[in-house]
Design goal:
globular, 0% strand, mainly alpha
Length: 176
């Protein structure tokens, strides 16, 4: 599933052909439909894998730092140049958010469940004393980081990309 997840982050929700994803997973056409009811099911499973990958990476960074600065480790880990150059192995939101908006209502609901899980796992590490403060910080920090990575990916010059990431990282780290 990891290969399918990476292909979808690289080629998009609609760009990844079922046949190519099946090849990545080692499934035949018949085998595909024994495992998945539809392409949407495959996409959802791939998104689940993508969220697991980024969550594990960010949780590792948070847990390896002191509790009071765990959120800073998350920001520093997220705003890496590799996030721009290796979209296939980083946060699915930076790669797929505009496409996720255009999915069916059922898909949006299932994607929302993944987003809620993402938030719930990251919220304890966010700055703030109360749960509502931490939730607000999550939305501000993650929205800023997601947008920053999307903009940085558009830039042709790696040095400029790194400058945009560094400026945002520095701004976030001194804002809370």
């Amino acid at each position: 599933m990891k290969d399918a997840s990476r292909r979808i982050r690289t080629e998009g929700l609609t760009g990844a052909a079922v046949s190519a994803v099946m090849q990545d997973t080692g499934l035949t056409h018949g085998g595909f439909y024994k495992h998945f009811a539809s392409k949407d099911e495959l996409v959802l499973e791939s998104l689940n894998e993508a969220f697991r990958e980024i969550i594990n990476r960010l949780l590792k960074a948070a847990k390896e730092s002191r509790p009071e600065i765990a959120w800073k480790a998350i920001v520093t880990t997220y705003l890496q140049p590799e996030h721009c150059s290796q979209a296939e192995s980083w946060c699915p939101l930076t790669a797929l958010a505009p496409e996720m908006v255009r999915t069916s209502e059922e898909m949006k609901g299932r994607i929302f469940d993944e987003l809620r899980n993402y938030k719930d796992l990251m919220r304890p590490f966010m700055p703030g004393r109360r749960s509502t403060d931490k939730e607000s910080a999550f939305f501000v920090i993650f929205s800023t980081m997601i947008g920053t990575v999307q903009i940085a990916r558009l830039l042709p010059d790696p040095a400029l990309r790194e400058k945009v990431l560094a400026n945002t990282r520095d701004f976030l780290l001194r804002s809370f």
